[in-house]
What does this fold into?
Amino acid sequence: MTADDIVVVGAVNVDMVVTAPQLPGPGETVVGPGMRRHGGGKGANAAVAAARSGGTVHYVGAVGDDDLGATALRELEADGVGTDDVAVVAQEATGVALIVVDEAGENQIAVGAGANGRLGADVVEAALRRRLPTAGCVLVSTEVPGAAVAAAVRAATAAGVRCVLNPAPVIPVVVELLDLGPVLTPNTGELFALAAAAGSGPPPSRASPSCKEILTCAQALVGRTRAPVLVTLGGDGVLVVDSDGTSRHVAPLWVEVRDTTGAGDTFNGVLARELAAGRRLDEAARVATVAAGLSVTAVGARNGMPTATELAAAAAGA
Ligand code: RIB
It folds into this structure.
C-alpha cells in the first residue's frame, strides 16, 4: 500500500464574486456587471487543486446544514475530493466570501466564517486517525479555529507524515506550532507577520520589502523550524528556502491575469500533491508554481486550476 494520499484541513466557502473596474476604497461603492457564485475557501480550493493534479484527496472541514453547504460538498465531490470527513454543523450557515475582482485581476475578500469557525479539534483528530495511515502529506490552512489547526499539525507530526502549513491568515497558534517543523508557505505579508509574531526577524524597512529582506526573514524562520519555507511572491514567482537555509527562486509562468483569487491555494494543493508523490522540494515547487500561474487565467478561485494533463503540458514547456 503506497502512502501518497493528501489530507487537507481548512475552510470551505461559497464565493460571491463581482468583477468591477476597480476595488472599492473605504466607504466607496463600485458597480460591476453582475455577481457570479463559485466554490471557495482556502482549504477546499487547495483540495480541488490537489485532486485535479492527480492526487487522492481527503478534505476535512465543516459546512452548515443549508443549501450552500450541500452545494459546496457536491462541487468538491464532482472534482473527486473525498468529503466523508466533513462535519455538517446543525443550525449554522456555510462560510461565504464576498469578493471584488478588478480589471488587473487583483481582489479584495471579506469572509463570513460560519461553520468553518465551528470545526472542532475532535473532528480533525478523528479524521486524521482514519487517513494518516495512507497519507503522504497533510496540508493545513488557518481560516479555521486554532485548535483544529493545532490538532492537524500535531497529529501529522506525531505520525511522521510531512505537514505543509499555509499560514493564511497568520493566527496566534501558528507560532506555537513552529517548533514542530511544518513546511511553511506564507506570502510576503504573512512571512513578515509570522516572523514578527515569532520574534524571529526584524520588520521590513518599507511597505514593499526587498528580495534581500524577504530572504533574510525566510532564513530566520527556517532557523526556527529547521524545515523549508516557501514564500509565494505573487507575480514574481516563489522563493524556496530549504531546511539548510539554501535558497532558490522559482520564476512565474507568464500568463494573462484574469483573477488572482485562489492562486496561493492552487500552489499549496499542488505542492502537497507533489510532495506526497515523493517529488523533491524544488521540483514540487516548480510544478506548483506553474499550476498557480495557470489558475489565474480564469475568474473564480477554481476555474483556472489545471487538470493533471494540462499541468504536465505546461510544466514541460516552462
Ligand atoms: O484564497 C482564496 C479564498 O479565500 C477564496 O476562495 C475565499 O473563499 C477565501 O477563503
In short: The chain has one domain: 5-317. The chain is about 35% helix and 20% strand.
